[in-house]
Amino acid sequence: MKRTDISAQVTSGGKPLAGALIDFANHENGEAYGGTLDDQGRVDLKDVALGQYTITIQPPPGDPLPGAPRQIPKGLRGIPRPFYGPHTSPLNAMVSDDESKFTYELTDFDLSAKR
Asked: What's the chain's average pLDDT?
């Protein structure tokens, strides 16, 4: 199986989603890759199999005290829920020898239509 290194950058309203979790899942071969977005909203992933991926974005899980509400960092509270799940996320990437850098602005996606 051919592989390549990829990078992704995610912003919302022009601001990087630093600290958000990103996951690339290929439902054809079952492979998945993920990481945490850095201060520029970027992640670099190594040795990714070529193919079609669904991408999800979520705030970090946090570690709340028992009975306390989950504390989502202020800059990540605005991630719309459709981006959380593989069946609702509009984010996709075709990883190939020619395509290995992906940039997403979450406000560019129309989430009003049911998926």
From this structure: 88
